[in-house]
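Q: My labmate handed me this sequence with no annotations at all. I'd like to see what the chain might look like in three dimensions before we decide whether it's worth expressing. Could you predict it?
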Amino acid sequence: MTRVISYDCTLRDGEQNEHVNWSLEDKQRYMEIAAPFVDVIEGGWPGANPIDTAFFDWAGGKNFGHARLAAFGMTGGRNCQVSDDEVFQRLVLAKTPVYTIFGKSWTLHTDSIIRVEREHNLEMIATSVSHLKQQQHGPMVVYDAEHFFDGYKAKPDYAIKTLRAAQDAKADCIVLCDTNGGTLPHEIVQIIKDVRRHIKTPLGIHSHNDSETAVANSIIAVKEGISHVQGTINGFGERCGNANLCSIIPNLKLKMGIDCISSEQMKKLRETARFIYELANLTHNKHQPYVGDSAFAHKGGIHVSAVMKRPDTYEHIKPELVGNHQRVLVSDLSGRSNIIYKAEEFGIDINSKDPVVQKILAALKELEHQGFQYEGAEGSFELLMQKALKSRKRYFRLLGFRVIDEKKKEDELPHSEATIKLEVDGKVEHTASEGNGPVNALDNALRKALEKFYPNLKEVRLIDFKVRVISAGKGTAASVRVLVESGDGKEKWGTVGVSENVIEASWQALVDSLEYKLYREESRSRSKKARPE
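A: Here is what I predict for the chain of 533 residues:
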């Protein structure tokens, strides 16, 4: 086998993960980030909620590059013809390149949950698939056989009949779903072998992780001839999650030699996984295979001694293949190496024996102890290095700010206003601005005060703003970390702030964001002047 279709259901199945709730903007950004990595992205269920409806209105007719968009829904025609089924027709009207519908494979569900005759269930599958295949834009139709493995174990003949109904209706792919996540790899092998004796349509696998076997089940299914694998980025999903595409994709590419992603895109896997954690406002799983912080981290003395000579003694792949890097946790030398590595990346010339390296390392450790995190906030980290080198320029000095959040009536939104006083090159600027919240008001006031001195700050746009509690158990007195992503149309950068006061944490991140812009502009200017004609 040389090709496996990767199918991403993070925007639909992944949203069933506790604490994950995608906004319309989140879904739009997700399409931009994930499209280069997978073949199909399931956008949601048209008409199921206002966000999904708005998303498919926005996505209609758009080209997402490598990935095709799928709309998801259920078999129609339970109480009427599929052409008269309003819920099913919302799916049809999405006019996406891929339609995915699920139907019942387990008699427990036909008999006790949706309560339809078993023969009628087969008709629903056949007529729904057939109706979608008849659409003029020639969509790919994927049939998800929900609870297939449980259904097969209970009544194999009927479970196979449900697949045959989809096959006879010309489904392009039939996906065997381990919806409860209770099937083990050896069972997957046995059942797929039997299914392939009856079904000639290309097969897919959709595994949940309730038995901690979702990735293993997906991989073993591919070994058995499955050519379509469904999963979610970072394994997001209901209960224990879904099969993790961040493990499946490198396993297929690097371990099995199956073409599913380019080598250049593979190098961005860690970056993408981390971005999607941030988009979901979830803490990164440090111990996640391939892309986690600890995936290639070494602490034991014997291990460290070995990997410094030969990384492959304790690393199953080169971490750079998936955009990760080796970390040695036991020695100061390792810490110094990391600082030197980042300095080179930023174009900063530091000798490894320079005392400033230890100074930066000590500052970094202290700040991380306070709750700062510089993954995703490299703008702040570069400024931290410049401060240690005594080369960080302060572009303004704060003389004070005040933020007022006033609510006059119970049924009205609060009114936010910020007043700020600062000094630039001996000149004092005192101004105020309103906003849709205290942080927005402070951001507006800061920009208003500075833009007359630094007009290029008008280019800066706040792309993302995340707040995370980092000292659990303290309630509203907890420390928070604010992570800000900014951009100017040419590049993007992240900055961070930490405090028990969310306004102060936001202030730190906002100031770093603007100072980083000014610092980068000044660096570029110096570089141009130094460049020989």
